[in-house]
Amino acid sequence: MQALLSFEQAPPIAAPFRFFLTAPLFAILAGTLLLWSGPELLASRWTPSALALTHLITVGFMLQVMLGAMIQILPVVAGANMARPLLLSSLVHAAIVPGALLLTAGLLTSQPFVLRLAVLLLGIGIALFLGAAGHALVGVRSTNPTIQGLKLALIGLAVTAGLGMLLAVARDGSSGLPVLQLTAIHLGWGLVGWGGILLAAVALVVVPMFQITPPFPGWFAHGFSWSVLAVLSSWSIVVGAGWQRSSAVLAAAVVLTVAVFAALTLQVQRRSKRARFDASQYYWRLAMLCLLAACALWFAADSLPALAQRQEWPLLCGVLALLGGFMSVMVGMLYKIVPFLVWLHLQNLGDGRVAAPSMNKVIAARQIDRQLYAHVASLVLLLAAVIWPEWFTYPAGIALVLANVWLLYNLLTAVAFYRYQRLKMVAPTSAIPPAQGTC
């Protein structure tokens, strides 16, 4: 696995870290919105508050983590060096953050001007990233399935962003566009075409590397990304054409691919050579179980008309997929990627003269474990709030805020550790007086 990676090509640590540190702030805002809106937020998936909370998680939390990870992964895994990564990350971050905040405000207030301004900023940020990433990947051969998956995930991001911007502009209903169909396609591409393909591509590297497991089977590694893209594209076409029977079959195929990925990841995890699981592995296991539960719920609603008519099932499916699935796995990856990057950059700074502290010292294991418990509590309470909103909405909001305040604290601890160790390494060198010239 290490032979596939080029650690010397890693971008400056500030490039991905600015995204990683911003992500928990959006999740904290999501919990605050839940407390502010109360049980009315969970009355339907279409309430302005529910739409705003969804995008705080997807555009706020998930997109931040995914862009930060891509900026780190592309040069290391694919050898795709983006020009001036620190400047690029600064510009993308400066556009994405206010864009996500304005999108949330626009969805809450239904103000067209706010939504258009959000579209402009998000469009600029995503276009900058796609342009830089696409330019870096030109000429890079798909020598392994991860590189192939990263390339296809960028297509998923472009389609997701384009559809989202179109929907935001057409929200006032004056465009005459088929909003419901476009919303379904936007959701499918966002969760599976962008999030699912990227997650699978990264899993091919990080699961064996950090969890000491065998590699994923070759048939899955080489076929998953292309299969998802082909089925998702076909489904989008038939949904747009209004062919309901064909769209139902292809939608089931899309959901089934997600279920296969989740089940296979659990199977690979079971063969880990670690004596005991750490919090990151439990996060992965929780995420895959939640994705399987979301897929099972989708199939149940598709088969049982009585369930399909209930308002709760789309919300339950969304909580399981977003908070339980994608958010869990991203937090679990942060607890591996952030300490690893701290160790890597300190090791490079030491240049063989000074050994960097081990990864386990960057963030205390007990703090990670406690944050995991808080995250699980927020997930359970939010699922309960969907069914009994009057009882559990406020506890769920408090738990979501606390879990992500804790996550932010842990990440800031890693930053403080890096700065302290960096000063310790640099100080002895800078204290040496310069050599005096001789006559």
General description of the model:
- This protein has 439 residues and is mainly alpha-helical.
- Helices cover 79% and strands 0% of the residues.
- It has 13 helices and no strands.
- Helix 4 runs antiparallel to helix 5 and helix 12 (365-387) packs antiparallel against helix 13.
- It is globular.
- The protein starts with 13 loop residues before the first helix and ends in an 8-residue tail after the last helix.
- Mean pLDDT is 89; it is low at 434-439.
| Shape field | globular
Integer-rounded radius of gyration: 22 Å
* Terminal-residue CA separation: 55 Å
Question: Which stretches are poorly predicted, pLDDT < 50 over at least 5 residues?
Answer: 434-439
Number of strands: 0
Number of distinct helices: 13
The overall pLDDT, averaged over residues, is 89
Strand content: under 5%
* H/E series: HHHHHHHHHHHHH
Main beta sheet: strand number and arrangement? none
As a percent range, the share of helical residues equals over 70%
Structural class by helix and strand composition: mainly alpha
